[in-house]
Amino acid sequence: MAGGGGRFVDPLWRVEVRLAPVEVELLRCEPVRRLQYVAHAGASALTTLQSYSRLEHSLGVLALAAHFRPEDELLRVAALLHDIGHLPLSHTFEGVGGLDHHALGAGLLSAEPVRPVLERHGIRPEAVAALLDGEPRTPLTGHPGLLSLDHLDSYVRSGRAGGQLDVDPAELLGRLRLAGAAVSTDRETAAVLVALVGAEARLHTSWDNVGPVSVTRRLARRLLDSGGPSARRLVRLTDAEFWAALDACPATRDESRRLRYQPHQLLVATGTADGEGWGFSLRKIYRSAPLVAGRTVEQAAPELAEELERLALLPLEFRVRWAS
Q1: What is the rounded CA–CA span in Å between residue 107 and residue 115?
Q2: How far, in whole angstroms, is CA 186 from its chain's centroid?
Q3: Looking at 132-240, which runs of residues are DSSP E strands?
Q4: How far apart are CA 105 and CA 96, in angstroms?
Q5: Is residue 242 part of a domain?
Q6: Quick one: 313 exposed, middle or buried, by C-beta within 10 A (0-12, 13-18, 19+)?
Q7: Distance CA 252, CA 240 (A)
Q8: Does residue 167 form part of some domain?
Q9: How many distinct structural domains can be found in the chain?
């Protein structure tokens, strides 16, 4: 793909992408290559079949950008680079020690090796950063509450990995259009997408996600507090390097191995009542929706809006412990 062919076919969307020279160069940069070794699903990759990488997702978003706006160089580059700041295991320990993948990504855009590549092709890193911050609004990041290309790929890729998708993604893509900075479709296809949004929300609030994520966040804090890798070093590790760092630290070694090889011993309960174990809170549940023939679901498909609204009832507070 980055070795000289200058093209790839995304296996999910079955879109052929002819890479621009800047995209080929970026795919040879360490911050982009590293994403192949970071699980998109984070710690829940330990307990689910969602084993695809952040790079696979980033290439999927690039494929969508190239499909809808093939000549929009800035949008395509931003699609490829939108996740370069992710920590090991993606969102799993976002916020621990103040770590923020958006800020880290902005820093990588303005540093070597990414900045020289962009500038060599006449692209201002600041313009990429602004686009990723939603200035101006584009289909990549979209409007709050509306389905963006980033989330579209996430929901469909996750749905396929989890056996939740009954529709051929390439066929699904053929029914989608862009309406300004949002994805728009017909009512039937909107129902498919809303079902995928719901499936993703239920996954995030399930044992499969809450258990391993809560343990890994504790391990990351302990690793930082125990004189392991510095925060600056930690954020650039791959998943394998992160697990190796946990194995090398006496304060994290045993629980890290237990998580990887005996996750079935984790017990998760909803609620905030005091008890054994530790508390864990999910920050939010994403409920973005496509437009239906250019109108919001509230206007065009109220039953779908109600389906999304019910996701607000999913639990966000949990108690987690290891079985005795």
Answers
A1: 10
A2: 26
A3: 177-179, 182-185
A4: 16
A5: no
A6: exposed
A7: 15
A8: yes
A9: 1
Contact 183, 148 (CB under 8 A): yes
Specify which residues 53 forms β-bridges with: 39
Going through the chain in order, the beta strands assigned E by DSSP cover 7-9, 16-18, 177-179, 182-185, 266-270, 278-281, 291-292, 317-322
- What residue numbers bound the domain in which 108 lies? 7-206+285-313
C-alpha to C-alpha distances, 18 to 4, 66, 121, 191, 298, nearest whole angstrom: 12, 9, 17, 32, 38
pLDDT (tens, 9 = 90+) of the chain, 324 residues, equals: 655 579 999 999 999 999 999 999 999 999 999 999 999 999 999 999 999 999 999 999 999 999 999 999 999 999 999 999 999 999 999 999 899 999 999 999 999 999 999 999 999 999 999 999 999 999 999 999 999 999 999 999 999 999 999 999 999 999 999 999 999 999 999 999 999 999 999 999 999 999 999 999 999 999 999 988 999 999 999 999 999 999 999 999 999 999 999 999 999 999 987 888 999 999 889 999 999 999 999 999 999 999 999 999 999 999 999 998
The strand pair at 291-292 and 278-281 is best described as: unpaired
**At 95, phi and psi to the nearest 5?**
95, -20
Rama region for 145: left / alpha / beta (φ>0; ψ in -120 to 50; rest): left
Give the tokens for residue 191.
């129902």
The domain that contains 152 carries what CATH number? 1.10.3210.10
Residue 297 domain-assigned? Answer: yes
Any idea which residue has 């880290």 for tokens? 104
Q: CA 209, CA 174: separation in Å to the nearest integer?
A: 32
Residues 51, 271, 40, CA angle at the centre, nearest 5°?
15
Q: b/e string for 183-200 if b means 16 or more Cβ within 10 A?
A: bbbeeebbbbbbbbbbbb
Q: Report the 10 Å Cβ neighbour count for 24.
A: 17
Rounded distance between C-alpha atoms, residue 204 and residue 9, angstroms? 29
